[in-house]
Specification:
The chain contains eleven helices and eleven strands. The radius of gyration is 25 Å and the shape is elongated. Strands 3, 4, 5, 6, 9, 10 and 11 form a seven-stranded mixed beta sheet that branches. The chain has a two-stranded antiparallel ribbon with strand order 1-2. It is 46% helix and 17% strand. Strand 1 and strand 2 form a beta hairpin. It is of the alpha/beta class.
Length: 316
């Protein structure tokens, strides 16, 4: 068995005629594996050992006489039988879980857990989703880097993640949300100094301008340099801030030059607070994705948030 699962030889087979609560536990475990795409992630989500999860899924498969998951090197892909079972049991199990949740009192839908880059969430996603709050939708928002957030999504900690890369494998479902266009920018004072030498020296004209970046390894700036200038960037940053909104503020204030997503600096460009140092015919782009686990959502409002983000992102 793959996904790091090992059979538990000591696990007894599910007894015939087992009590109905045991069936419910098997279905809960099945739904956790179905949504997380992994036996290991489901075990973490349920607070069970991985061999216990494996044994419960095998018991459910024996009862149904059909395979529910295809064991992969990393994760578990649901079979059509699993898709059908999930469609039948997800909503009733979610309602039971909501009714039993402490402090919920059984009223209202569970919160939708959304995660992604802080800049995109705060400047685009939150304004788009604000009307849902007035309609009773509850949101719990987390920020972070795409890699860790996708792992947390697989483990069931989030319902939706805005990712800056497409996740690999079949344990998650990703749809394109928006394209980020990257722009080389500086305040007008620095732009004027570099403009005099740019025609003759190209990117070397920026040698005397401080570089402001998101991180020490300059991931966005290096990508721009390779794509637009066809070369390797060897400069070091004068200032790093782990939030592109901070990079934007610093560059507007005259700290130096940087590369920023156009959606983030559009207003500053329109107002003249920033100047695009170059407008290439083929600017570098990065596609962002809206990612969720396969199968039915964990609550009725997840689809509302998912669909509204996709709709609103057309104008971003």
């Amino acid at each position: 068995m793959s996904d790091g699962e090992t059979d538990d030889p000591a696990a007894p087979p599910a007894p015939a005629g087992a009590a109905r609560p045991a069936d419910l536990n098997l279905l809960r475990t099945f739904l956790a594996v179905y949504r997380s795409g992994s036996f290991t992630a489901a075990a973490q989500l349920l607070g069970l050992s991985q061999p216990t999860v494996t044994a419960q899924i095998r018991a459910l498969e024996r009862r149904s006489g059909r395979d529910l998951f295809e064991r992969l090197p990393r994760g578990a892909a649901p079979t059509p039988v699993a898709d059908e079972l999930a469609a039948r049991v997800a909503a009733p199990l979610d309602e039971l879980a909501a009714a039993a949740a402490p402090g919920e009192g059984g009223a209202g839908s569970a919160p939708v857990h959304l995660a992604g880059p802080a800049e995109l969430l705060c400047t685009r996603a939150m304004p788009a989703l604000a009307p849902l709050a007035a309609e009773g939708v509850r949101l719990r928002v987390a920020t972070g880097l795409t890699g860790p957030l996708l792992e947390e999504l697989r483990a069931g900690r989030h319902d939706l993640v805005i990712a800056t890369v497409r996740p690999r494998g079949r344990s998650l479902v990703a749809v394109p949300l928006m394209d980020e266009e990257f722009v080389l920018v500086a305040a007008p004072s620095w732009a004027e100094r570099a403009a005099d030498r740019a025609a003759a020296e190209g990117p070397s004209a920026l040698r005397g301008v401080p570089l402001v970046a998101y991180a020490e390894d300059l991931p966005i700036v290096r990508r721009y340099w390779r794509h637009v200038f066809g070369g390797r960037l060897s400069w070091r940053a004068a200032l790093t801030l782990p939030d592109l909104r901070g990079v934007l503020s610093a560059v507007v204030a005259g700290a130096g030059f940087s590369v920023l997503p156009r959606y983030l600096c559009r207003e500053a460009l329109d107002s003249g607070a920033l100047v695009a140092l170059r407008e290439p015919d083929d600017p570098p782009f990065n596609t962002c994705y809206l990612v969720r686990r396969p199968g039915p959502p964990s609550g009725p409002d997840v689809d509302r948030v998912h669909d509204l983000l996709l709709r609103e992102a057309r104008g971003w």
